[in-house]
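User: Let's play a game. I give you a shape written as C-alpha coordinates, and you guess the letters that built it. Ready? Here's round one.
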Protein backbone atom coordinates (compact mmCIF):
# COMPACT_ATOMS: atom_id res chain seq x y z
CA UNK A 1 0.00 0.00 0.00
CA UNK A 2 1.06 3.64 -0.37
CA UNK A 3 0.73 6.32 2.29
CA UNK A 4 1.98 9.87 1.74
CA UNK A 5 4.41 8.76 -0.96
CA UNK A 6 5.60 5.80 1.12
CA UNK A 7 5.16 2.29 -0.17
CA UNK A 8 4.84 -0.18 2.69
CA UNK A 9 3.91 -3.76 3.42
CA UNK A 10 0.92 -3.93 5.79
CA UNK A 11 1.28 -5.83 9.03
CA UNK A 12 -0.84 -8.91 9.57
CA UNK A 13 -3.81 -8.48 11.89
CA UNK A 14 -2.38 -10.87 14.47
CA UNK A 15 1.16 -9.46 14.48
CA UNK A 16 2.53 -9.15 18.01
CA UNK A 17 4.47 -6.14 19.23
CA UNK A 18 8.16 -6.99 19.75
CA UNK A 19 10.27 -5.94 22.74
CA UNK A 20 12.65 -3.90 20.56
CA UNK A 21 12.04 -1.77 17.48
CA UNK A 22 15.21 -1.06 15.52
CA UNK A 23 15.12 2.14 13.44
CA UNK A 24 17.12 2.35 10.23
CA UNK A 25 17.01 5.04 7.57
CA UNK A 26 18.52 4.03 4.24
CA UNK A 27 19.95 6.41 1.66
CA UNK A 28 22.48 5.20 -0.91
CA UNK A 29 23.80 2.60 1.54
CA UNK A 30 25.35 0.71 -1.37
CA UNK A 31 27.45 -2.32 -0.46
CA UNK A 32 27.00 -1.98 3.31
CA UNK A 33 23.24 -2.41 3.77
CA UNK A 34 23.26 -6.21 3.65
CA UNK A 35 25.98 -6.40 6.31
CA UNK A 36 23.99 -4.11 8.56
CA UNK A 37 20.76 -6.10 8.23
CA UNK A 38 22.58 -9.43 8.56
CA UNK A 39 24.09 -8.21 11.83
CA UNK A 40 20.53 -7.84 13.17
CA UNK A 41 19.49 -11.26 11.92
CA UNK A 42 22.53 -12.69 13.74
CA UNK A 43 21.51 -11.20 17.13
CA UNK A 44 21.28 -13.61 20.07
CA UNK A 45 18.17 -11.65 21.14
CA UNK A 46 15.44 -12.40 18.62
CA UNK A 47 12.39 -10.42 19.78
CA UNK A 48 12.91 -7.39 17.54
CA UNK A 49 11.51 -5.68 14.48
CA UNK A 50 13.45 -3.63 11.96
CA UNK A 51 11.71 -0.52 10.67
CA UNK A 52 13.76 0.33 7.58
CA UNK A 53 12.81 3.53 5.76
CA UNK A 54 14.35 3.62 2.28
CA UNK A 55 14.68 7.36 1.64
CA UNK A 56 14.55 7.54 -2.15
CA UNK A 57 18.05 6.22 -2.85
CA UNK A 58 19.56 6.54 -6.32
CA UNK A 59 21.60 3.33 -5.97
CA UNK A 60 20.42 -0.28 -5.49
CA UNK A 61 19.55 0.15 -1.78
CA UNK A 62 15.80 -0.33 -2.40
CA UNK A 63 16.41 -3.59 -4.27
CA UNK A 64 18.73 -4.83 -1.53
CA UNK A 65 16.20 -4.02 1.19
CA UNK A 66 13.44 -5.75 -0.77
CA UNK A 67 15.43 -8.99 -0.61
CA UNK A 68 14.65 -9.17 3.13
CA UNK A 69 10.92 -8.54 2.85
CA UNK A 70 10.09 -12.21 3.50
CA UNK A 71 11.41 -11.95 7.07
CA UNK A 72 8.31 -11.01 9.12
CA UNK A 73 10.50 -9.08 11.57
CA UNK A 74 11.65 -6.70 8.84
CA UNK A 75 9.20 -3.91 7.98
CA UNK A 76 10.45 -2.00 4.94
CA UNK A 77 9.02 1.36 3.90
CA UNK A 78 9.98 2.73 0.49
CA UNK A 79 9.84 6.49 -0.06
CA UNK A 80 9.26 7.58 -3.63
CA UNK A 81 11.53 10.61 -3.14
CA UNK A 82 14.17 11.72 -0.66
CA UNK A 83 12.71 13.57 2.34
CA UNK A 84 15.86 13.82 4.47
CA UNK A 85 17.25 12.12 7.53
CA UNK A 86 15.15 13.77 10.23
CA UNK A 87 11.73 13.30 8.59
CA UNK A 88 12.64 9.70 7.73
CA UNK A 89 13.68 9.03 11.33
CA UNK A 90 10.52 10.60 12.68
CA UNK A 91 8.45 8.44 10.35
CA UNK A 92 10.33 5.30 11.45
CA UNK A 93 9.81 6.32 15.09
CA UNK A 94 6.07 6.73 14.48
CA UNK A 95 5.90 3.12 13.24
CA UNK A 96 7.73 1.58 16.22
CA UNK A 97 5.77 -0.90 18.33
CA UNK A 98 8.47 -2.02 20.76
CA UNK A 99 8.96 -1.16 24.41
CA UNK A 100 12.54 -0.23 23.60
CA UNK A 101 13.91 1.50 20.50
CA UNK A 102 17.36 0.78 19.14
CA UNK A 103 19.05 2.47 16.20
CA UNK A 104 21.31 1.02 13.54
CA UNK A 105 22.45 3.12 10.60
CA UNK A 106 22.42 1.38 7.24
CA UNK A 107 26.21 1.12 7.00
CA UNK A 108 26.95 0.21 10.64
CA UNK A 109 27.12 -3.24 12.26
CA UNK A 110 25.67 -4.51 15.54
CA UNK A 111 27.66 -7.15 17.40
CA UNK A 112 25.68 -10.36 18.12
CA UNK A 113 25.15 -9.65 21.83
CA UNK A 114 24.27 -5.98 21.51
CA UNK A 115 20.47 -6.11 21.77
CA UNK A 116 20.43 -8.77 24.49
CA UNK A 117 22.83 -6.89 26.74
CA UNK A 118 21.03 -3.60 26.27
CA UNK A 119 17.60 -5.13 26.95
CA UNK A 120 18.96 -6.85 30.06
CA UNK A 121 20.33 -3.55 31.35
CA UNK A 122 17.15 -1.56 30.72
CA UNK A 123 15.04 -4.33 32.27
CA UNK A 124 17.06 -4.19 35.47
CA UNK A 125 17.61 -0.40 35.63
CA UNK A 126 14.22 1.26 35.43
CA UNK A 127 15.73 4.70 36.04
CA UNK A 128 17.73 4.52 32.79
CA UNK A 129 15.99 6.14 29.82
CA UNK A 130 18.90 6.09 27.36
CA UNK A 131 21.66 3.50 27.03
CA UNK A 132 24.69 3.53 24.77
CA UNK A 133 27.64 1.23 24.21
CA UNK A 134 31.29 1.66 23.41
CA UNK A 135 32.00 1.28 19.70
CA UNK A 136 34.70 0.53 17.17
CA UNK A 137 35.15 2.80 14.17
CA UNK A 138 35.63 0.79 10.98
CA UNK A 139 36.59 1.69 7.43
CA UNK A 140 35.11 0.59 4.11
CA UNK A 141 36.82 -2.80 4.49
CA UNK A 142 35.62 -3.42 8.08
CA UNK A 143 39.07 -2.75 9.53
CA UNK A 144 39.03 -1.07 12.95
CA UNK A 145 40.49 2.44 12.71
CA UNK A 146 39.55 3.83 16.13
CA UNK A 147 37.42 3.44 19.23
CA UNK A 148 34.75 5.43 21.06
CA UNK A 149 34.85 4.85 24.82
CA UNK A 150 32.78 7.52 26.63
CA UNK A 151 32.37 7.62 30.44
CA UNK A 152 30.27 4.86 31.95
CA UNK A 153 28.66 6.85 34.77
CA UNK A 154 25.56 9.00 34.32
CA UNK A 155 27.19 12.15 35.73
CA UNK A 156 30.15 11.76 33.40
CA UNK A 157 27.86 11.30 30.41
CA UNK A 158 25.87 14.42 31.26
CA UNK A 159 29.09 16.39 31.72
CA UNK A 160 30.29 15.08 28.36
CA UNK A 161 27.07 16.19 26.71
CA UNK A 162 28.00 19.76 27.57
CA UNK A 163 30.44 19.77 24.65
CA UNK A 164 29.71 16.74 22.44
CA UNK A 165 27.42 13.79 21.85
CA UNK A 166 28.85 10.88 23.88
CA UNK A 167 26.16 8.37 22.82
CA UNK A 168 26.59 7.36 19.20
CA UNK A 169 23.27 6.94 17.43
CA UNK A 170 23.92 3.39 16.22
CA UNK A 171 24.81 2.33 19.75
CA UNK A 172 21.68 3.74 21.39
CA UNK A 173 18.68 2.04 22.94
CA UNK A 174 16.00 4.07 24.71
CA UNK A 175 12.52 3.74 26.17
CA UNK A 176 9.88 4.28 23.50
CA UNK A 177 7.24 5.60 25.90
CA UNK A 178 9.50 8.30 27.33
CA UNK A 179 10.78 9.30 23.90
CA UNK A 180 7.20 9.63 22.68
CA UNK A 181 6.29 11.78 25.67
CA UNK A 182 9.08 14.27 24.86
CA UNK A 183 8.20 14.45 21.17
CA UNK A 184 10.78 12.11 19.67
CA UNK A 185 13.43 13.45 17.32
CA UNK A 186 13.27 17.28 17.05
CA UNK A 187 11.95 18.06 13.58
CA UNK A 188 13.98 21.29 13.37
CA UNK A 189 17.29 19.41 13.77
CA UNK A 190 18.65 18.59 10.31
CA UNK A 191 21.90 16.94 11.38
CA UNK A 192 21.94 16.52 15.17
CA UNK A 193 18.55 14.97 15.64
CA UNK A 194 19.90 12.21 17.90
CA UNK A 195 21.63 14.71 20.20
CA UNK A 196 18.43 16.76 20.27
CA UNK A 197 16.49 13.72 21.46
CA UNK A 198 19.15 12.87 24.05
CA UNK A 199 18.81 16.37 25.52
CA UNK A 200 15.08 15.79 25.82
CA UNK A 201 15.51 12.35 27.42
CA UNK A 202 18.12 13.39 29.99
CA UNK A 203 15.49 15.54 31.68
CA UNK A 204 13.37 12.43 32.25
CA UNK A 205 15.83 9.93 33.67
CA UNK A 206 19.38 8.60 33.79
CA UNK A 207 21.85 7.93 30.99
CA UNK A 208 24.01 4.81 30.99
CA UNK A 209 26.86 3.33 28.96
CA UNK A 210 27.85 -0.32 28.55
CA UNK A 211 31.67 -0.53 28.61
CA UNK A 212 31.86 -2.98 25.71
CA UNK A 213 32.36 -2.41 22.00
CA UNK A 214 28.99 -3.75 20.83
CA UNK A 215 28.67 -1.63 17.68
CA UNK A 216 30.86 -0.98 14.65
CA UNK A 217 30.48 2.56 13.28
CA UNK A 218 31.54 2.91 9.66
CA UNK A 219 33.58 5.99 8.80
CA UNK A 220 33.68 6.75 5.08
CA UNK A 221 35.42 9.56 3.24
CA UNK A 222 32.27 10.19 1.21
CA UNK A 223 30.22 10.78 4.37
CA UNK A 224 32.59 13.58 5.36
CA UNK A 225 32.27 15.40 2.01
CA UNK A 226 29.68 18.17 1.99
CA UNK A 227 28.96 21.15 -0.18
CA UNK A 228 29.75 24.60 1.20
CA UNK A 229 26.05 25.23 1.74
CA UNK A 230 25.77 21.98 3.72
CA UNK A 231 28.85 22.92 5.76
CA UNK A 232 27.13 26.14 6.83
CA UNK A 233 23.95 24.26 7.78
CA UNK A 234 25.88 21.62 9.73
CA UNK A 235 27.95 24.23 11.57
CA UNK A 236 24.83 26.23 12.42
CA UNK A 237 23.08 23.07 13.66
CA UNK A 238 26.02 22.13 15.89
CA UNK A 239 26.19 25.65 17.32
CA UNK A 240 22.50 25.62 18.22
CA UNK A 241 22.87 22.14 19.73
CA UNK A 242 25.63 23.36 22.05
CA UNK A 243 23.52 26.37 23.05
CA UNK A 244 20.57 24.08 23.74
CA UNK A 245 22.81 21.83 25.87
CA UNK A 246 23.90 24.74 28.03
CA UNK A 247 20.31 25.85 28.55
CA UNK A 248 18.76 22.44 29.22
CA UNK A 249 21.39 20.40 31.08
CA UNK A 250 21.89 20.65 34.84
CA UNK A 251 25.66 21.13 34.60
CA UNK A 252 28.33 21.28 37.25
CA UNK A 253 30.89 24.11 37.06
CA UNK A 254 33.23 21.99 34.96
CA UNK A 255 30.37 21.14 32.63
CA UNK A 256 29.47 24.83 32.30
CA UNK A 257 33.09 25.64 31.40
CA UNK A 258 33.16 22.87 28.79
CA UNK A 259 29.89 24.12 27.35
CA UNK A 260 31.16 27.71 27.07
CA UNK A 261 34.25 26.46 25.23
CA UNK A 262 32.16 24.24 22.96
CA UNK A 263 29.88 27.14 22.05
CA UNK A 264 32.86 29.37 21.29
CA UNK A 265 34.45 26.69 19.09
CA UNK A 266 31.13 26.03 17.35
CA UNK A 267 30.78 29.76 16.63
CA UNK A 268 34.26 29.77 15.11
CA UNK A 269 33.51 26.74 12.95
CA UNK A 270 30.33 28.44 11.83
CA UNK A 271 32.35 31.56 10.96
CA UNK A 272 34.81 29.51 8.89
CA UNK A 273 31.94 27.79 7.06
CA UNK A 274 30.38 31.19 6.28
CA UNK A 275 33.69 32.57 5.02
CA UNK A 276 34.23 29.55 2.76
CA UNK A 277 30.77 30.19 1.34
CA UNK A 278 31.82 33.77 0.49
CA UNK A 279 29.75 35.17 3.36
CA UNK A 280 32.80 36.81 4.94
CA UNK A 281 30.95 39.69 6.61
CA UNK A 282 28.64 37.25 8.38
CA UNK A 283 31.66 35.18 9.32
CA UNK A 284 33.37 38.18 10.90
CA UNK A 285 30.25 38.93 12.92
CA UNK A 286 30.21 35.32 14.13
CA UNK A 287 33.86 35.61 15.23
CA UNK A 288 33.11 38.84 17.10
CA UNK A 289 30.15 37.19 18.81
CA UNK A 290 32.34 34.25 19.83
CA UNK A 291 35.04 36.58 21.15
CA UNK A 292 32.54 38.61 23.18
CA UNK A 293 31.08 35.43 24.73
CA UNK A 294 34.37 33.66 25.59
CA UNK A 295 37.53 35.57 24.59
CA UNK A 296 39.94 33.08 26.20
CA UNK A 297 38.62 30.11 24.24
CA UNK A 298 38.66 32.11 21.02
CA UNK A 299 42.19 33.45 21.40
CA UNK A 300 43.57 30.02 22.31
CA UNK A 301 41.85 28.16 19.49
CA UNK A 302 43.58 27.27 16.25
CA UNK A 303 40.35 27.84 14.32
CA UNK A 304 40.69 31.57 14.99
CA UNK A 305 44.12 31.61 13.38
CA UNK A 306 42.75 29.60 10.48
CA UNK A 307 39.92 32.05 9.96
CA UNK A 308 42.09 35.13 9.81
CA UNK A 309 44.63 33.31 7.67
CA UNK A 310 41.90 32.20 5.24
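Assistant: Ready! My guess for every position:
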Amino acid sequence: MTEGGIEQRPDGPASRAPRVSVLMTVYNAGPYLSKSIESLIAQSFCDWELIAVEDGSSDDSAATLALYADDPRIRPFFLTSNIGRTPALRYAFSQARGEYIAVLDADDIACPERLRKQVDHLDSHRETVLLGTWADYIDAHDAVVGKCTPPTDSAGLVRGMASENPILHSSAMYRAEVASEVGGYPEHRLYNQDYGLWLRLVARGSLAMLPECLTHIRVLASSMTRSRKQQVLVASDILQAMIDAGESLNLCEEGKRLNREAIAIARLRYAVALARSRRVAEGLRAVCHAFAADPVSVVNNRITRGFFGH
